[in-house]
Amino acid sequence: MGNPFGGMMDTIFADKEVLTESYQPETILEREAEIEEYRYALQDVLFGREPENVMLYGKAGLGKTAVTTYILEALQTEVETRDEADELYTHEINCNGKTVFMVVRQLVNTLLPANASEFPKRGLGTGDAFTELYEQLDRLGGTHLMVFDEIDHLDDADTLLYELPRARANGHITNAQVGIIGISNNYTFRTSLSPKVKDTLMETEISFSPYNANELGTILQDRAEQAFAEDACDQSAIRRAAALAAQDMGNARQAIDLLRVGGEVALREEADCVTDDHIGAARERVQRGRLQNRIREQTIHDQYILETIAYLEEGDETPVRSKEIYDLYQDVAAECGDDPLTTLKSIQDHLSDLHMLGFLQRFERNEGLSGGQYYEYELDLNADIVIETRKTIEETRL
Ligand SMILES: Nc1ncnc2c1ncn2[C@@H]1O[C@H](COP(=O)(O)OP(=O)(O)OP(=O)(O)O)[C@@H](O)[C@H]1O
């Protein structure tokens, strides 16, 4: 047999990396108003003054990170041309799963001289970490913009947001300036802060709203021109990807993913160019992938229950009562070599959880005095996907 890769050609993509998450676009489109507010908030850096603090709000994929990277790079370029501006340092930290101590320690470690040993993980407290941070900031001087992504996930954002912005006013640092940029998916983050932080932070708030289909179309057009070979992507494919993502959450990441996966489908089919049908197929693949991940995240007994209802659905036996689900579930679990849960009540609890999580639809039946009240269930997702996912999970289980 010849080399399986021999003769493979890519006539669709010219530069596929442009459609990946790690790619930073040279131009940010459709965010002029947000960039303008950002520019205004940070302009003091150019004149050697402390900038305003900034809080960015918006759901996933709306350009908060892309706009921040773009604006900080532009600011750095401009600072380098101006004598009156201090040296600019930018620090980016994701706060998810971190304590204030961990965040401050991470900042300290990025500021320490190359030959110094790291700030200890244990033995010292948050106050010590702040003291070291102030010392390092003063040693270096300049302006430090600190970007805290997912700041709403920080266990004690109050302490961080009370301490840092006031460090200079409180005399902890004299030689450096600090600006805070917080990024949050949660619009109510501000209301969770203590009144004293709210009063002192004095931040500029920039909120990112979902993109509409036209805006996503402009973003995708720009990417498609760079990513695809000449004439390898139909205009209708771009419009379809933009429309589908706009209908969903207005998320640019999702729109770009659809275009990339659409390109992959076209390549696999050895088509000349990406069409709107390829985008439709891409959406199904992306949705399938997402659903499969959600199924995998459930406990094994929840998965058996879903699999059981999928079989019942295939035999046109749904909606179905918990008792019937329980009977077949026992076979499904045993078939997979597991001891089934032994009471109907425990199955009913699982059914109720799966309904709450959106996997199942539930119908209340009332048969008056004689039959009483009970529930019937059916899948709220595609039975094929459940069976297919379960099959792959079982195949890879030890
Ligand atoms: N206005 C835009 N112009 C060009 N590309 C954009 C724009 N907005 C978003 N993107 C692209 O969409 C993807 C998602 O954007 P980004 O990571 O900035 O979203 P985010 O709001 O920070 O989301 P998350 O909260 O999930 O991190 C990135 O690949 C980014 O380059």
UniProtKB/TrEMBL annotation:
Keywords carried by this UniProt record: ATP-binding, DNA replication, Nucleotide-binding
Binding residue positions for ATP: 211, 223
Any one GO MF annotation of this record: ATP binding
Residue ranges constituting the Cdc6 C-terminal domain according to the UniProt record: 306-390
BP terms from Gene Ontology: DNA replication
UniProt-listed Pfam families: AAA_16, Cdc6_lid, WHD_Cdc6
Keyword ATP-binding: yes
Entry annotated with the keyword ATP-binding: yes
Signal peptide interval: none
AAA+ ATPase domain segment(s): 50-208
SUPFAM superfamilies named in the record: P-loop containing nucleoside triphosphate hydrolases, Winged helix' DNA-binding domain
Stated role: Involved in regulation of DNA replication.
Family (UniProt): Belongs to the CDC6/cdc18 family.
Protein name: ORC1-type DNA replication protein
UniProt organism field: Natranaeroarchaeum sulfidigenes
Gene name of this polypeptide: cDC6-3
